[in-house]
Amino acid sequence: MAYKQLPGRGNNPKTGHGIPAPFKQTAEDPKVAKMQESIAKRKAFGPTADEQKKAEGFAENASKGKVLSGTEYNSRSGKTVPKEFEKSLRSGKELGLEKSPNDMFITDSAGKIIKKAEAKNPSAVEALKKEYGKMKSSTEGARKANTMAQNYTIGLTGK
Length: 159
Prior knowledge:
The chain is an alpha+beta fold and about 160 residues long.
């Protein structure tokens, strides 16, 4: 019997090929994973003198509330924390709209309607829900990544 090699499995990854994405074990948000990797690299090399100087300035400003948008400084812990997502997904009934109680709306923190999907179009309602979910997860991921970076910077000062 001779050995016969056939065209193989191609250039697919060795694991996970053909498995639906929800079943794969992946890192959190891509922004958070990238920030964790970046912080790990910076910790491995240690801070430069310039980074140390900037960190001291940032820590001083952070205690005064001057932090990145979407985050806030917690004076008790001495660290920054992400703010909650201010937009919400609500029905017309929740908003008290008599003419369109079954329609779906995305509202801002003040209750102002940003986007609307009419109940008579179920695909538009589902698309609005999906858009809201993406918007929320993206914003929360970015805020968490910003918080991690700011806390690393504050940590360089030893405070």
